[in-house]
């Protein structure tokens, strides 16, 4: 076996490590979620641990699915990008099939699996982010340079939004729009081009709110929940009272009064208010800090992957970070009265089988991104050491400088440029500017 074959074999044996900060933040949030679901749901049924038991089962399934996602090579997933998109449409259409779709509180968002119900849009979020990441890799030059390439994902998300509004699910629709817009910007699309279709959509979204009575009531009640405290403002007014009672250190774990059948959905959409009441401002700051760490680390990982020309991995990290960050912002904003009431859970904390399981899968994919990035860095270090060892010694030569990030990226991608772009000028994700 020659030296080249030996080096290739040694490189193949090098693995990676999962990001400890990502894993730690996710585990901490999920653990806090278990505690708070137990506390917030204890008075909702005759069996005090009914919702806790269900939550633990879904957490267990989510962890198992995440473990599978953490072991799947991303390049293998990328091959099936078109099937992922078809899966998004199929999941949103199947809820309308008689016998499969299930209606809860007037919304047809679930499919009946017999033992439980599954909200399909939660799986769509994962599949759509992976598909959009693949699209931005294949057309990252054209997305910046042509209208057609930029409008294709806008058209795709437009169809998904229509299907969601038929269920109806206004909150998830806006979330997908937000993820798409931000990922296009990070993928290099010009911001002024993105703003035009968004401005054209805005009147339609306003009309959807105005001509749907329950949405209009949510908007008006969020502006002044005390005007109709026992009617349209009931949820928000009780949420604000819970938050106010928490003060600095809270009333104590398990001592919330608002969760005792005063605050609706205290274990799902409004669990943040219970956290604020029982753990106070200190607990709220801890929750926000953990989400900031998780989302910030996802964006850091995305930038490192982009620097190494691992664009698919980088865009997935951006997408998952945007999903968790935007959904957290909306959920907390609703509880604080900053945004109209939307049916979006607090990721990894709120009770809810579909949301918990699919968020665990998303975190598993994110951890896989970190593992492959770490593996690439370690393999590149071995290549650099081998190059230094093989370089002929020259009299009076200066010691070799450490390899820079740009040099590493260039070495990794030499002769292996990916994508199907036909543009001559390479465009990187620099918020719309040509690199």
- What is the CA–CA distance across the termini? 43 Å
Structural class: mainly alpha
Shape: globular
Name the helicity range: 55-70%
Overall strand count: 3
Describe it for me?
It is a single chain. With 435 residues, the chain is mainly alpha-helical. Helix content is 66%, strand content 3%. The protein has helices spanning 3-13, 20-40, 50-69, 74-78, 81-94, 120-138, 140-145, 147-165, 170-186, 191-210, 213-223, 234-246, 271-307, 311-335, 353-390, 405-413; strands at 101-104, 107-112, 117-119. It has a 3-stranded antiparallel sheet.
Please give a quick description of this structure.
The chain is mainly alpha-helical and 435 residues long.
Key descriptive features of the protein:
single chain, 435 residues, three-stranded antiparallel sheet, 3 strands, disordered C terminus
Give the arrangement of secondary structure elements.
Layout: H1 3-13, H2 20-40, H3 50-69, H4 74-78, H5 81-94, E1 101-104, E2 107-112, E3 117-119, H6 120-138, H7 140-145, H8 147-165, H9 170-186, H10 191-210, H11 213-223, H12 234-246, H13 271-307, H14 311-335, H15 353-390, H16 405-413
Helix pairs in contact: 2-3, 2-13, 3-15, 5-6, 6-9, 6-14, 6-15, 8-9, 9-14, 12-13, 13-14, 13-15, 14-15
């Amino acid at each position: 076996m020659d030296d080249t074959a030996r080096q290739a074999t040694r490189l193949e044996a090098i693995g990676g490590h999962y990001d400890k900060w990502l894993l730690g933040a996710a585990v901490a949030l999920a653990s806090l979620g278990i505690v708070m679901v137990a506390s917030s749901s204890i008075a909702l049924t005759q069996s005090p641990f009914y919702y806790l038991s269900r939550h633990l089962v879904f957490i267990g399934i989510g962890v198992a699915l995440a473990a599978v996602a953490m072991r799947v090579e991303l390049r293998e997933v990328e091959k099936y990008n078109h099937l992922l998109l078809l899966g998004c449409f199929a999941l949103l259409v199947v809820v309308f099939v008689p016998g499969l779709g299930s209606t809860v509180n007037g919304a047809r968002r679930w499919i009946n699996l017999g033992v439980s119900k599954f909200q399909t849009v939660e799986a769509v979020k994962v599949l759509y982010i992976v598909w959009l990441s693949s699209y931005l890799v294949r057309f990252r030059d054209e997305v910046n340079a042509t209208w057609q390439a930029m409008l294709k994902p806008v058209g795709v998300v437009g169809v998904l939004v229509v299907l969601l509004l038929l269920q109806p699910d206004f909150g998830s629709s806006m979330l997908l729009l937000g993820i798409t817009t931000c990922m296009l910007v990070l993928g290099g699309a010009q911001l002024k081009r993105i703003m035009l279709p968004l401005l054209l959509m805005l009147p339609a979204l306003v009309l959807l709110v105005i001509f749907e009575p329950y949405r209009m009531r949510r908007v008006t009640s969020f502006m002044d929940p005390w005007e109709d405290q026992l009617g349209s403002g009931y949820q928000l007014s009780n949420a604000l009272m819970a938050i106010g009672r928490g003060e600095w250190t809270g009333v104590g774990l398990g001592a919330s009064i608002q969760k005792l059948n005063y605050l609706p959905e205290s274990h799902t959409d409004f669990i943040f208010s219970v956290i604020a009441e029982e753990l106070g401002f200190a607990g709220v700051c801890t929750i926000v800090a953990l989400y900031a760490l998780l989302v910030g680390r996802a964006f850091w990982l995305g930038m490192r992957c982009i620097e190494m020309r691992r664009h698919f991995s980088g865009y997935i990290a951006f997408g998952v970070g945007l999903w968790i960050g935007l959904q957290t912002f909306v959920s907390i904003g609703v509880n604080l009265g900053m945004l109209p009431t939307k049916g979006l859970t607090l990721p990894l904390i709120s009770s809810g089988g579909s949301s918990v399981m699919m968020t665990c899968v998303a975190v598993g994919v994110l951890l896989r991104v970190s593992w492959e990035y770490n593996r690439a860095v370690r393999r590149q270090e071995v290549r650099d050491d081998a190059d230094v060892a093989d370089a002929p010694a020259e009299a009076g030569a200066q010691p070799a400088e450490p390899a820079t990030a740009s040099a590493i990226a260039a070495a990794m991608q030499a002769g292996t440029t990916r994508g199907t772009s036909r543009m001559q000028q390479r465009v990187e994700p620099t918020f719309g500017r040509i690199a």
